[in-house]
Amino acid sequence: MKVTYYGHSCFSVYANGKNLLFDPFITPNELAKHIDVDAIKADYIFISHAHYDHILDVERIAKNTGAKVLGNFEIYNWLLKNGIENSHPINPGGKFDFDFGTVKCVTAQHSSSFMDGSYGGIASGFVLTTADGNFYYSGDTALTLDMQLITKFTKLDFAVFPIGDGLTMGIEEAIEASKLVEVSKILGVHYDTFGFIKMDHQKALDSFKGAGLHLFLPEIGETIEI
């Protein structure tokens, strides 16, 4: 599958003829200032939780593209209040079928609140099953044994994990998470954007390689095949 990285935790996957975009946070990110947000294609947008660094560009991109936006019930209501009517609620445990395939919402161990401090619902991740392959985006999370349940329902081709530490998993925990979900290919996200999540790239690459895993760290704006 073709994967494009837009910085922080924002990436898109082209699967079964559809552009699937995750956690759009681009315009405030100095590392992604060369990205033309209005040129981004999206048929679906998935929001893992309500923190500003995962939702700040969702209104703009959704209104530009007409994409269907999915998030937990609190995010769904927030989207409706902000004029994004093409939205769809999904909470952990829930599963829905769409024209690209199937999405199942799973638990993430993380906090969640909107910029005004109001409750943002439970943080979550997504397991997507498509004709082109299957993948898991954990969202912002700590390592949790709940991850091993994913393999009981889905055989994954790759996973997307936060590796910047501090607010989420770091390198060591992401390696263990990869083992729990039985993947050898991992896209790393949620690093470098802020001072407290800056990461040693070579250490990360070497650590994953030493564990028999392939870590992908594409440049912001780069499209790769996974």
From TrEMBL:
Domain of life assignment: Bacteria
Domain Metallo-beta-lactamase: 7-190
Keyword Zinc: no
SMART domains: Lactamase_B
Acetylation in keyword set: no
Family matches, as InterPro entries: Metallo-B-lactamas, RibonucZ/Hydroxyglut_hydro, UPF0173_UPF0282_UlaG_hydrolase
GO molecular function: hydrolase activity
Name of the protein described by the UniProt record: Metal-dependent hydrolase
Keyword annotations from UniProtKB, A to Z: Hydrolase
